Amino acid sequence: xxxxxxxxxxxxxxxxxxxxxDLARDKGVPRAEFIAFAALEEIVERLTxxxxxxxxxxxxxxxxxxxxxxxMSEQLGMQTVALVAARVAAVAGTSDQAALAALVARLVxxxxxxxxxxxxxxxxxx
Length: 126
What we know:
Layout: H1 17-27, H2 29-56, H3 59-76, H4 79-92, H5 97-125
Helix pairs in contact: 1-2, 2-3, 2-5, 3-4, 4-5
InterPro entries: HPT_dom_sf
């Protein structure tokens, strides 16, 4: 029993940069950057709200906020975040608390990874 193994999940993150290219083409680069970064800030706030609602046991609010994350994430090409947020919203209405806990934790992980990917994209653009 001296050997303890820690499992650390690693998520594959998919960010479709084409959404950002389309936004830049439609709005111009400066305006697209402003829109994208404002949306990223809002996604961060909503991911925090998802986690807070889960901890408070407010599952209706959790589902509502998770659904809003889906739409915002899809607009920015954050496909993995949108997929997991949709699953969180769907499971929030069930009695499967273990699945919900796992999905909320996964949403936080993919959210953090996607935000890091956006930071990497921003650095590449400069």
